[in-house]
Write a structure and sequence with these properties.
Helices cover 32% and strands 12% of the residues. The protein is of the alpha+beta class. It has a domain of 162 residues: OmpA-like domain (60s Ribosomal Protein L30, Chain: A, 2-Layer Sandwich), CATH 3.30.1330.60. It has a five-stranded mixed beta sheet. A two-stranded antiparallel ribbon has the order 1-2. It comes from Salipiger bermudensis (strain DSM 26914 / JCM 13377 / KCTC 12554 / HTCC2601).
């Protein structure tokens, strides 16, 4: 009876599932290959950066194809082994292949590493407008020139033109503010005229009806004209630009035309203007030309005897034009 009361022994195995799958080691091999490739790449970059031109040329020669273009013959140790005497691959019966073998890098091995050396004959036309009054410059890049240098020159020219435009604007504003701010000269602000020409900024003092800047038929400067010239001199005295002065008259003949005409009168007025500018600090070396033009360039061509044709022009020369480097039309 006792043997029948014994309970059977049950063994229960519990397998724990921690939720993590088995990881293999294949990714380690791929990662190692990737790191090896990156190391080789950066090593190549370091060699290119640290090597001089001679070493780079030798490296390029090493990878340059050594087979000639005529029949595929080679000059190396394998000549006659890989290729037969007739230029045909050993073990074949056909003629030499007509396919042109690659020649990239044979003329200049460094071109393999620098693409700029492969474009040696650019022919580029660059046109840009950097002159007032619609004046246009054009520059042609000759064969063998550097496009980057031309682009930098273009940017420098445009920057210089922008700076000159700003300088002209400041000069006009300074002169007009001085004139308007003076109770004695405020009414003569209409006698001032500013024109931006291809040569530079032309500042003109013109006659108005009943308001003559010079004594009639004389080169003697009126007091108000002298004050206006003083303001102009103060505005340009610190500038490096050269100055030109021209005198103009109307078409009314001078009374003493036999000995003294509008030519002499306009020249004397321009010279009197030069003396006033110099007396107010303008260096005489900056004044490069004095012109007496009589009535040949009227401000009002429709009315040659109009008072505004009588005027004095002081031109602040454009920097390049003053240096004799102004572009041709």
């Amino acid at each position: 009876m006792a043997g029948n009361n014994e309970q059977p022994i049950v063994i229960k195995r519990i397998e724990e599932d921690d939720g993590h799958g088995h990881h293999g080691g294949a990714w380690k091999v791929a990662y190692a290959d990737f790191m090896t490739a990156m190391m080789a790449f950066f090593l190549l970059l370091w060699i290119l950066a640290a090597s001089d031109e001679e070493k780079l040329r030798g490296l390029a020669d090493y990878f340059t194809p050594s087979l000639s273009q005529s029949g595929g013959r080679g000059d190396g140790l394998l000549d006659g082994t890989v290729l037969a005497d007739d230029g045909v691959m050993s073990g074949t019966d056909g003629p030499a292949t007509p396919v042109q073998l690659p020649s990239f890098g044979q003329e200049n091995p460094l071109a393999v590493f620098d693409s700029r050396l492969r474009d040696t004959n650019p022919n580029i036309q660059v046109e840009y407008d950097t002159r007032p009054e619609g004046r246009q410059e054009s520059a042609t890049i000759n064969e063998g020139s550097d496009p980057m240098e031309t682009a930098r020159a273009q940017v420098a020219a445009e920057r210089a033109q922008q700076e000159w435009d700003e300088a002209q604007e400041r000069l006009e504003q300074q002169i007009m503010q001085e004139v308007v701010g003076s109770p004695e000269l405020e009414s003569y602000s209409d006698n001032l005229r500013f024109d931006r020409t291809e040569n530079g900024l032309e500042i003109q003092i013109v006659d108005k009806s009943g308001e003559s800047m010079f004594a009639t038929g004389s080169a003697r400067i009126q007091d108000r004209t002298r004050d206006l010239l003083r303001i102009i001199a103060d505005a340009v005295v610190e500038l490096p630009n050269e100055l030109t002065i021209s005198g103009h008259t109307d078409s009314v003949p001078y009374t003493r035309a036999a000995t003294y005409s509008n030519w002499e009168l306009s020249a004397d007025r321009a010279n009197a203007t030069r003396r006033v500018l110099m007396a107010n600090g303008v260096s005489p070396e900056r004044i490069t030309r004095i012109s007496g033009l009589a009535d040949t360039e009227p401000l009002n061509p429709g009315s040659p005897d109009a008072p505004e044709n009588r005027r004095i022009s002081v031109t602040v020369q454009y920097p390049e034009a003053a240096a004799g480097a102004a572009p041709q039309e």
